[in-house]
Amino acid sequence: MPLRIFVALDTSDVSRDLLKFVRDVAPIHSVVRIVNVALGEPSALLPGDAAIPVPEPSRDDREQPRHDAKDALSDAADFFVNAGIPADTQTIEMSWHDADIGHAIVAAAAAWRAELVVVGARQHRQWLRWLEASVSGALTRLSPCPLMIVPHGWHGGEGDWPARMLFAVDSAEDARHCAMYGLRFAAPNALSLRAVCVAAPAPVWPAEHREADVDRGAKALAAARQVLERASSNVTTATIGAAETSEDIARVLVREAAEWHADLLVMGMHGSQGLKRLVVGSVASQVAHLARTPLLLVDVPYVPDA
After folding, report:
1. Which of 128, 170, 219, 251 has the most Cβ atoms closer than 10 angstroms to its Cβ?
2. Confidence (pLDDT) at 46
């Protein structure tokens, strides 16, 4: 099924990773919008209306980043057109001191009626702001649609891709929703699919809570297997790790994705009752921050536990 894919990029190497990623996973007949966020002049204000003098940049210094961004957008559009994917471009203008890049991307994606948002992630320069508070935080909380995050240095696989998909689940409804959506991006052949649930540490839970937690995890894995076996005969499930805090859970999932050599990690983004321990707010952002595996965060609707 085709998608309206909204790609936010900068003019760095991470954007090339992003373009290749989208080309490889985009369902046939999808359309793409490529967006660059143009930050205005830097300013520094102190309490009491005092200002720190900022040297006036030359005209060339002001215009060069805009020319670079325009060229990057044009090259990206050509890249997709040459791959048979219709694409257009957009520049989001915003002043530096009012900048909230994450919210700007969310608003632009919603206005375009995006069905998937794709962003890159790396740990330095401007992308540090994008990945941490501004983009990862805002998008994992507010994105109106599923979100893909492509880590810097990702180079894709050979042949059909992704061939190894890892699904992190925490409730039956979450598992069914994430599995059905994630399979839209699966390679048609040689699939290896795995669903995992992160265990809670036994010592911190009263017996009745521990039993309910184990039962919910078992139901989640069974629901995931039911969906995934429609696409592949090579499906495994497991309860992994033992984690209490959101940071613990994120690290367990990231380690599992790396050790299993996953091509794509799929997990829920918004919190239903069953997801409160796994993905409410912080875990999705922390996985996005830590993962070196491409990450698909699916907007899971609220479904109360039975």
Report:
1. 170
2. 42
